[in-house]
């Protein structure tokens, strides 16, 4: 026999089955357990993510925000005591004798801001740093500015560390830290099923260091030369990023060795879900519940982001403390993973029993058997594409809010309104798209339909005050922008602006973000269902098999999300039938639209699906920043993507008397109908075509041995022999 024949024979299915016996047929009980687990996994992911985000961010209020009163003597002492007493727990006030100490205290994060009590004049100085967090600086401005006004003082604001032009929102460090967390924990799930031989600690750590250097370099490349949010600082990103990614990777390795495939839940919860609200990089951590303020000191996402912010903006104040936190995660994760490996061996619970490179394993879960090199490529490219996509789209759309073409009407008689438009164009024409509307009722209808952001009503009586009509429920950020603009316009004309909010935010939605979280929950529940099904039930290849599962999931998760948001959290009050009904339609439609790519391309197709149905839709939805503050590229997407339609559904139900619901439902229905038709007519035939490659065996999986009774000695010997052959 020739060498070629030997090689062919060694790689034949019979030879592979002899070396790596396939698992025994699945019992009915095992199949039921597997299917139940496939519902539990997306349920837990969606629940923990949106329970945390909605619960912490729907009504952020300051709690013990540390501020300082600068000044000596009885007057400063009385003011400080009164400031803390009247804040009702919102402020933690201390005394500082000298203004020169304020900058160091802000840099060290000991205070968020300060107010200098005037001695003789009538002007108080408020100090804060936008680079320390734009939301936190706004809290300082409101709290200390209002206190100064109550004392009849004029207010001068000093920004101790302004944000650079390329990072107007101050979110660059958040996106960098999020990218590092994703780079650290996402690869482990793919490695467990595709390249389990690399999960020994001594093999994994060198790979993690190189991976950390690569991904942190890419994050800097995106945020720096590509987006322009950071200028230079590559060595800083390389050092902090490599440490952060390696630390998170070692920690996730430990979780994987203990929990197997379910480690992704714990990693996501600790590293991202809790990490974002605890980070102090988006909203101030002093608006978060107390346990998140504690987690800010210990979690790796806050440590990575704060280390970058410290070095870039505050001359390294506190930098080494954050680095020490990351080093602690690295040492603890790697050390405990090593001890676990020594005690239990390299096999991982729930992972493949066969771990050699030539074992019949898929590149990604649910796919066909793939050669080892292809598995290596998939294990690298899948998480890399997620990191690059998330950091690029989020930073590109939100790093520098720039108001342009915001539609505002001037209401009044044609001649008078036209004259006002001509007067406003030189100063506001670059930001606003001004038009004349004949009546206030017409303008209100246009605001409800979101064709207008606001209407400036010209006074008809001599000496009267102009009125600005807005709708906070249609977007809090755009409302505050136009109010600020037209308050200045009215002041220039010697009058005071009156405001009318036709859709005020509820007390449980102070930031106006609830509609965005409702829509995002529906969308994630849709595409995540098929991602889990493709990985855990690739044997379901017919639309008719999947239809009742998708329908039941869509209804069940919509009921649960309403119950979570309304009854448990109290963020969305009422509208139960509408939210459940529209949620069911949205989840069902997005699931089938996502299934077209996921069922054909496997889990690798999850990345383009996430871009289309989720990531590109966030800036296009206007749920956070106004659509008129993000790059023009996203505006056309607002009318065609499912996430903007879902956010608008929630917003219209709660705030806008249902205006526009029909159009949004039509967009979602088209996505669902086209997706369902393609699945039934095209995808089913493709998956069941003659010669289609079967999915890799769903096992065998490693199950740790338990102590055996003497009567079970024969079974124990057989299990030990099987494990020895696999190793």
Automatic annotation (TrEMBL):
It is found in: Membrane. This is ABC transporter permease. It is a multi-pass membrane protein. The chain crosses the membrane at residues 35-53, 172-192, 204-223, 235-255, 262-283, 319-339, 376-396, 515-534, 546-565, 577-598, 605-630, 665-683. Its main location: membrane. Keywords: Membrane, Transmembrane, Transmembrane helix. Residues 702-712 have a biased composition (Basic and acidic residues). It comes from Nocardioides deserti. InterPro entries: T7SS_ABC-Transporter. Residues 1-31, 693-727 are annotated as: Disordered. Residues 713-727 have a biased composition (Low complexity).
């Amino acid at each position: 026999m020739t060498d070629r024949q030997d090689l062919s024979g060694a790689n034949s299915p019979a030879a592979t089955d002899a070396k790596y016996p396939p698992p025994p047929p699945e019992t009915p009980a095992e199949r039921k357990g597997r299917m139940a687990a496939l519902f539990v996994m997306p349920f837990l992911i969606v629940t923990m993510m949106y329970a945390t985000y909605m619960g912490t961010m729907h009504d952020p209020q300051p709690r013990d925000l540390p501020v300082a009163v600068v000044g000596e003597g009885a007057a400063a002492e009385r003011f400080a005591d009164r400031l803390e007493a009247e804040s009702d727990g919102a402020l933690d006030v201390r005394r500082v004798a000298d203004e020169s100490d304020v900058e160091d205290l802000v840099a060290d994060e000991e205070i968020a801001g300060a107010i200098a009590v005037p001695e003789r004049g009538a002007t108080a100085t408020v100090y804060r740093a936008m680079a320390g967090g734009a939301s936190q600086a706004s809290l300082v401005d409101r709290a200390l500015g209002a206190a100064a006004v109550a004392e009849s003082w004029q207010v001068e604001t000093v920004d101790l560390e302004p944000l650079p032009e390329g990072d107007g929102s101050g979110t660059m460090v958040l996106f960098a830290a999020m990218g590092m967390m994703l780079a650290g924990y996402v690869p482990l799930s793919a490695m467990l099923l595709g390249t389990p031989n690399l999960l020994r600690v001594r093999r994994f750590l060198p790979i993690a260091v190189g991976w950390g250097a690569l991904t942190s370099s890419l994050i800097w490349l995106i945020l720096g030369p590509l987006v322009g949010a950071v200028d230079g600082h590559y060595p800083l990103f390389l050092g902090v990023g490599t440490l952060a990614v390696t630390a998170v990777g070692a920690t996730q390795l430990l979780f994987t060795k203990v929990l197997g495939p379910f480690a992704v839940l714990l990693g996501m919860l600790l590293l991202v879900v809790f990490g974002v609200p605890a980070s102090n990089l988006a909203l101030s951590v002093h608006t978060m519940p107390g346990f998140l303020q504690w987690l800010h000191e210990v979690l790796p996402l806050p440590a990575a982001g704060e280390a970058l912010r410290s070095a870039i903006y505050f001359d390294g104040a506190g930098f080494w403390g954050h680095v020490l936190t990351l080093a602690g995660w690295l040492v603890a994760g790697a050390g405990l993973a090593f001890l676990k490996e020594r005690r239990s061996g390299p096999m991982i619970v729930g992972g493949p029993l066969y771990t050699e490179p030539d074992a019949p394993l898929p590149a990604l879960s649910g796919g066909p058997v793939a050669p080892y090199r292809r598995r290596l490529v998939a294990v690298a490219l899948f998480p890399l594409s997620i990191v690059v996509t998330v950091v690029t789209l989020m930073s590109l759309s939100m790093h520098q809010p720039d108001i342009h073409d915001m539609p505002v009407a001037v209401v009044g008689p044609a001649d008078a309104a036209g004259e006002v438009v001509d007067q406003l164009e030189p100063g506001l024409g670059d930001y606003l798209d001004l038009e004349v509307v004949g009546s206030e009722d017409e303008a209100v209808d246009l605001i409800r339909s979101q064709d207008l952001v606001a209407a400036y009503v010209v006074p008809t009586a001599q000496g009267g005050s102009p009125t600005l009509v807005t709708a906070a429920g249609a977007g809090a950020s755009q409302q505050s922008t136009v109010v600020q603009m037209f308050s200045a316009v009215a002041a220039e004309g010697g009058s005071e602006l009156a405001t009318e909010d036709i859709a005020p935010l509820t007390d449980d939605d102070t930031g106006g973000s609830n509609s965005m979280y409702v829509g995002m929950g529906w969308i994630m529940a849709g595409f995540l269902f098929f991602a889990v099904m493709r990985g855990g039930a690739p044997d379901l290849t017919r639309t008719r098999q999947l239809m009742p599962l998708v329908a039941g999931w869509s209804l069940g998760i919509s009921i649960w999300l309403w119950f979570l948001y309304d009854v448990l959290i109290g963020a969305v009050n009422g509208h139960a039938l509408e939210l459940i009904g529209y949620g069911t339609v949205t989840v069902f439609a997005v699931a089938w639209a996502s299934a077209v790519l996921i069922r054909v391309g496997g889990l690798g197709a999850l990345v383009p699906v996430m871009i289309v149905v989720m990531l590109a839709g966030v800036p296009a939805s206007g749920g956070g920043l106004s659509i008129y503050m993000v790059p023009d590229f996203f505006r056309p997407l607002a009318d065609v993507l499912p996430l903007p339609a879902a956010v608008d559904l929630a917003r219209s139900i709660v705030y806008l008397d249902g205006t526009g619901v029909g159009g949004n439902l039509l967009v979602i229905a088209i996505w669902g109908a086209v997706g369902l038709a393609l699945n039934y007519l095209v995808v089913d035939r493709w998956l069941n075509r003659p010669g289609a490659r079967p999915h890799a065996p769903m096992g065998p999986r490693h199950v740790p041995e338990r102590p055996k009774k003497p009567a079970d000695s024969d079974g124990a010997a057989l299990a030990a022999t099987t494990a020895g052959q696999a190793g």
